[in-house]
Design a protein that fits this description.
The protein is of the alpha+beta class and 188 residues long. It folds into 2 domains: 116 residues, no CATH class; 43 residues, no CATH class. Helix content is 42%, strand content 21%. The protein has 5 helices and 8 strands, in the order H-H-H-E-E-H-E-E-E-E-E-E-H. Strands 4, 5, 6 and 7 form a 4-stranded antiparallel sheet that branches. Strands 1-2 form a two-stranded antiparallel ribbon. The two termini are 35 Å apart.
């Protein structure tokens, strides 16, 4: 069966459309690299905002590690496979996000109190309400086993970012395809 101009289908613009499709692929690698990089910065920003918003206990080391170029930060990107990895190598980041026990059975120096609970001695000094860890101090505090709830700063940031990503992807694809299909021409 053959179809042609008299079959009731609208063929006007088909060749232009097909030629436009080949133009879509051109330049996509550079566009995707820029977009991926921008998304990475958006995610880092969201993580930093959530650390601040949730009041995550931090000496600014955690907050600063979620930045490109920080020694504790993780920033890996490739545009062809659209891979982006951001994170931190700060050792307490997971504890601050997920929560943790102050003392566990495998904690060095942990011991059982007469009531059966776990504890450990932490050497240091007090300055007002602030405890300053000092491994050489003769004084310190007794830290009993207790669950410290995490702030879920990273989890919250990823949820927010997923919304941003979905909107960004939709908009970016529409704009990019429209730009390439029309070759920069304005609509009639």
């Amino acid at each position: 069966m053959r179809r042609g101009p008299d079959d009731g289908l609208d063929w006007e613009g088909l060749n232009e459309f097909l030629n436009g499709l080949s133009n879509v692929r051109e330049g996509m690698a550079e566009e995707s690299r820029k977009w991926l990089e921008a998304l990475g910065f958006d995610l880092l920003y969201q993580i930093q905002q959530e650390i601040i918003r949730t009041g995550t206990v931090d000496t600014r080391r955690l907050l600063n590690s979620f930045d490109v170029g920080d020694g504790d930060g993780v920033w890996k990107m490739s545009s062809d496979g659209l891979t982006l990895e951001v994170g931190t190598n700060v050792e307490y980041a997971k504890f601050a996000n997920d929560g943790h026990l102050t003392v566990r059975h495998d904690t060095p120096g942990a011991f059982k109190l007469p009531d059966g609970s776990l504890a450990r001695f932490v050497p240091g000094t007090w300055s007002g309400d602030r405890f300053i860890y000092d491994p050489n101090a003769d004084t310190g505090m007794l830290l009993k086993e207790k669950w410290i709830e995490g702030s879920h700063y990273f989890d919250n940031a990823v949820k927010i970012f997923r919304i941003i990503f979905g909107r960004s992807l939709d908009k970016k694809l529409r704009v990019y395809i429209d730009k390439r299909m029309r070759g920069g021409r304005k609509r009639k």
